[in-house]
Amino acid sequence: DVKVTQSSRYLVKRTGEKVFLECVQDMDHENMFWYRQDPGLGLRLIYFSYDVKMKEKGDIPEGYSVSREKKERFSLILESASTNQTSMYLCASSLTSGGWYQETQYFGPGTRLLVL
Amino acid sequence: DAKTTQPPSMDCAEGRAANLPCNHSTISGNEYVYWYRQIHSQGPQYIIHGLKNNETNEMASLIITEDRKSSTLILPHATLRDTAVYYCIASANAGGTSYGKLTFGQGTILTVHP
Fold first, then answer.
1. Most B-contacting residue of A56, A101, A106, A111 (CB-CB within 10 A), to test interface
2. Fewer CB within 10 Å of terminal CB in chain A, N or C?
3. How confident is the model over A43-76, as pLDDT tens digits?
4. Any CB–CB contact under 8 A between A39 and chain B?
């Protein structure tokens, strides 16, 4: 069965701390994504990666960085956490399609981050 | 990705069909229509997709109008566990290799009541 796991379901950090959110998929997918979800704003794409060591900015990359050293693992890094980064963070993965069709994205359960 | 418009909320009685509409009047010829749903406190889950023809799977049916400007997701016998936010997305790759980007809107909150 398809599986995307995230390192924590809930996380509490202090302003200025460096925060690592980890995502692991076991489906050998090329693409991995990080979204944040806030009430009234829906899901917004932060970063995505289409291959090991490759990354692309999404719609709201400011204040975040990512790392993809292995195909199965995609990390989101908050270099210096701020209160406006309090949010639900969702990781997803998908295969690469050779045509117009977008392959299904499989999501993890999410990490609810609170920055105090 | 083409813009999609969905009603913010809908109700449905348990056991009845839930029909969720989506407008995508600016959809281009190579854009597919995708539906995902998100049950409370979980990540979104793929439901179904289509290009032109109506589609059916074990979860739902997708009806796309002939002009492709709108579509309807049908849950034939809604249960309480179908209460979720439903997202309609119109999207295509840039052509060639796809990175699978999808743009999620606000979706429709479907509440199934006993």
1. A101
2. N
3. 999 999 988 999 999 989 999 999 999 999 999 9
4. no
